[in-house]
Amino acid sequence: MNKKLGILLSTSPGNKNIETVIGLVHAAIKSSVSVYLYLIDEGAECINDRRLVELTKNGLKLYVCAYGAQKKGISPSDVATFSGLATLSELTTACDRFIAFG
């Protein structure tokens, strides 16, 4: 059974956290770990990062806070699942490890 890694990103695309998150996601997927990334607050703007879009093609499960996306004027996308905090809560309990970048 695959391990599950959950990551929360709440910082904007200009913050260095995005680089760390992308590196973690890439390494985890390469190691057959299931990865769930939840973008919230300023992090919702990272939905259009081409590297994250590519990682969804390799297995990354990408979620975006629907409220945060609405506040930022971000339209729904086929790349990510738009959801609420209930989904975030479920991810924190379902994953073997959960890391937050904020």
Overall description:
With 102 residues, the chain is α/β, with parallel strands linked by helices. It has a single domain (4-101), classed as 3-Layer(aba) Sandwich (Hypothetical Protein Ychn, Chain: A). Helix content is 38%, strand content 25%. The protein is built from 4 helices and 5 strands. The chain has helices at 17-30, 50-57, 66-72, 85-94; strands spanning 4-9, 34-39, 61-65, 81-83, 97-101. It has a 5-stranded parallel β-sheet, with helices on both faces. Helix 3 (66-72) links the parallel strand 3 and strand 4. The longest helix is centred in the N-terminal third of the chain and has 14 residues, at 17-30. The chain starts with a strand and ends with a strand. The mean pLDDT is 95.
Keywords:
single chain; Hypothetical Protein Ychn, Chain: A; 4 helices; 5 strands; alpha/beta; 102 residues
CATH superfamily: DsrEFH-like
Strand order of the largest sheet: 4-3-2-1-5
Provide the CATH topology: Hypothetical Protein Ychn, Chain: A
| Low-confidence blocks of residues | none
**Spatial extent as radius of gyration:** 12 Å
CATH domain class name: Alpha Beta
What is the H/E order?
A: EHEHEHEHE
**What is the CATH architecture assignment?**
3-Layer(aba) Sandwich
Short summary:
The protein has a single domain (4-101), classed as Hypothetical Protein Ychn, Chain: A (3-Layer(aba) Sandwich). 38% of the residues lie in helices and 25% in strands.
